[in-house]
Design a protein that fits this description.
This protein is of the alpha/beta class. It has helices at residues 21-32, 40-53, 58-67, 82-91, 95-111, 122-126, 140-154, 160-176, 199-218; strands spanning 9-15, 35-38, 114-119, 132-137, 189-192. The protein has one domain (9-218): P-loop containing nucleotide triphosphate hydrolases (Rossmann fold), CATH 3.40.50. Helix content is 55%, strand content 12%. The structure holds cytidine-5'-monophosphate.
Length: 220
């Protein structure tokens, strides 16, 4: 069911690592023909470039790269290695790097009538006036199992305990940083994803929220 072309709708989807926000927000966006952006990939791509090029000034280097950046640059790259994940949460603490990525995200919102962005600070910083703010939650053990299953496909030697530990550290860094920390935005709709099998229920819940917002905003 695609939304009418005249509709303007902004949807923020925030949550911790492997909380199901990418799966949920992506499927949901596809269902309604909403432009989707995973903002974590911008942090991951920046880390990938830093690891590859070891620039002396990360700010100057990334500013240059993001002038020419488009979403096709994210394709065909493995941006989910443990090394990239670790560096992403470190660079995410830096104001000047967040500023560069914020500019791209704000442009993405301006260019599209219907947008859904998933990340950590979408409902608080990138789209503070979003029509809908979803906040995904999942206990660490379930989220780590989910991430472990994915990572094992590429690296059969990876250990569950290591994955879980790295996720705990990264989530703590994301929650405790001074700039744009991961927090539940005011009036956010909580989407619990601890029960792995219930993707359909999750999409239904998100759809009900969207349909009631559309009714309020456009009366149909
Ligand atoms: O969502 P994902 O796990 O791919 O994000 C990787 C890292 O990028 C996060 O751990 C976080 O440090 C950072 N990030 C962020 N703000 C966002 C999206 C991601 O700080 N909006």
């Amino acid at each position: 069911m695609k939304l009418k072309s005249k509709f303007n709708i902004q949807i923020a989807a925030d949550g911790s690592s492997a909380s199901g926000k990418t799966t949920g927000a992506k499927l949901f966006s596809k269902k309604y023909g909403i432009k989707f952006l995973s903002s974590g990939l911008l942090y991951r791509y920046s880390s990938y470039l830093i690891i590859k090029n070891k620039p002396s000034s990360e700010r100057i280097f990334l500013e240059k790269k993001f002038k020419k950046f488009n979403l096709s640059h994210l394709k065909n790259k493995n941006l989910h290695t443990p090394e990239i994940s670790e560096l992403s949460s470190k660079i995410a603490k830096k104001k000047e790097i967040r500023g560069i990525l914020k500019r791209f995200q704000k442009n993405f919102v301006r260019r599209n009538r219907k947008v859904c962005i998933e990340g950590r600070d979408i409902g608080t910083v990138i789209m503070p006036n979003a029509d809908i703010k979803f906040f995904f939650t999942c206990n660490l053990n379930t989220a780590a199992k989910r991430r472990f299953k994915d990572l094992k496909k590429k690296n059969p030697k990876i250990k569950f305990a290591e994955v879980k530990k790295a996720m705990r550290i990264r989530d703590n860094l994301d929650r405790s940083r001074r700039i744009s920390p991961l927090i539940k935005p005011k009036n956010a709709v909580i989407v619990p994803t601890d029960k792995l099998k219930n993707i359909k229920g999750m999409i239904n819940k998100m759809s009900n929220v969207l349909e009631s917002v559309i009714k309020k905003k456009y009366g149909s």
